[in-house]
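Entry 14. Ran structure prediction on the chain below.
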Amino acid sequence: MSFTEKINKIRNPKKDVIKYAFGKQIIDRMYIEVCSACQYNCQYCCHKEMIEFYNDYHLTLEELDRFLYYTKKSNYFFREVCIHGSGEPTLWKHLNEGIRVLHDSEVVGGILLGSNGVSIGNIEENTFEYIDQIRISGYPDAKKNDRLISLQKSYPEKIKINDIKMFLEVTKVAHLGTIPCKCICPLPMFIKDKIFYCNGAVFEAAKLKGVNILDCHEVYCELKEDYMKGYMFDKKRNYDLCQYCSYNDKIAKNLKCYPHKIRYRK
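Output, structure tokens:
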């Protein structure tokens, strides 16, 4: 039985729990942000400020190698990595090679790719065998994408389309006194040699507060050995920025949801 198979036998249903097993620290999921390019310009995209902050960003293979090096050096193992934005990951310049690098790594158990489906044809045929699942955000035009429809028929066990009809609005004001709170998306993400303890909405929160996100050292660390030491798992969040963030559960419950409308970038 392989190490990954052993780990899957002890899987904990809580997605954000970190466990120790077989001498390694097991992390259920890590988001790897690979590019800022996107076909859409959605009004309520929670990554909008992150996309602008890391404008024209593409994760290099050298950066990916460094990430995997420090992950191995830290004795971490990811049950799953999610190839993510902050834009549309299938526009990543190193998409196919990067997926192969992750698949061949000793520290990655499985690969999930989140996509809007528009450029799914950029995934080469032989790359599909390395991907465990592709989750498509089924925006209104997904049903018109012939390539996506064809690939879903070829890989029904891999490609899942989630119907997206509503977007949560981004908070426009501070909600002081709302910490500690529960983050409704408490998974760590890697981008530009940094590990953020929050998702992309933290960039919107920093803008609302009027600060540079890189001055908020409590919500990220530089890539280094033992980089997950500062990550708060299975605990309430108590960052000052949480009072400005739409993913604070105390704030999100009072925000409106709006029907999604396709807006393409010019």
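Residues 73 and 150 are 41 Å apart (CA to CA). Will compare against last week's run tomorrow.
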